[in-house]
Write a structure and sequence with these properties.
Helices cover 53% and strands 12% of the residues. The protein is built from seven helices and five strands.
């Protein structure tokens, strides 16, 4: 009995000194933006995404570049990516928002799932595009962003940066203009000082 009591006391000591297991919670979202698009528009959409990441360097963007392999595997891949994203940008074009032969069936599937899971969908009109058919019916009341309109794109960038809590950097051209103005001001000031100094010396 004494031996049993000794063992029990040791077990209690060990149980009080061992820390409980910690549970690591995964982040709510792994991506900021999911890009829904037709692969026929890959070049134009890639340029748009590059602009997004240039202006918001820490923005996490999910965009399928590999294409469809096995349908079931692709479904699971798309669902996981949308679930892990905060927003969905729909690249609108005749290829992505038409219904029928030659259209992209995946964009409709992606948008239906995004809408059903409460994701914010942002339609971005590629060059000369407009919403048609089912897409117009579903998103006609949503403000569309014209990718060729500088002011609308700037507004989109500011909103995405705000929603994602990310830094928005100024356009490279604007930075160059500012640097040029600073240099011109410096040179002008220096010449004024030197000119005044020359007059005093005379």
């Amino acid at each position: 009995l004494l031996f049993g009591n000794v063992i029990w006391e040791r077990v209690k000591r060990i149980s009080t000194t061992v820390a409980p297991p910690t549970i690591q919670m995964s982040a709510a979202h792994n991506y900021d933006v999911f890009i829904s698009y037709s692969r026929k528009d890959l070049e134009e959409v890639s340029t748009f995404v590059e602009m997004l990441k240039t202006r918001i360097p820490t923005l996490e963007v999910w965009m399928d570049l590999e294409g469809i392999t096995a349908a079931d595997e692709f479904d699971e891949k798309i669902i996981s990516a949308i679930d892990a994203s905060s927003y969905v940008i729909f690249a609108v074009s005749p290829n992505s928002n038409s219904i029928g032969e030659g259209s992209s069936k995946w964009t409709k599937k992606e948008l239906v799932y995004a809408k059903n899971t409460g994701k914010k969908v942002i339609p971005v009109l590629l060059s000369g595009a407009e919403l048609n058919n089912w897409f117009l019916f579903e998103f006609g009341r949503v403000d569309c962003i014209d990718s060729t309109n500088k002011h609308q794109i700037e507004k989109l960038l500011k909103n995405i940066a705000k929603w994602s809590n990310k830094e928005l950097v100024k356009p490279q051209k604007e930075k160059k203009v500012q640097n040029t103005l600073i240099m011109e001001t410096f040179i002008s000031t220096a010449l004024t000082i030197l000119g005044g100094y020359g007059v005093n010396k005379a």
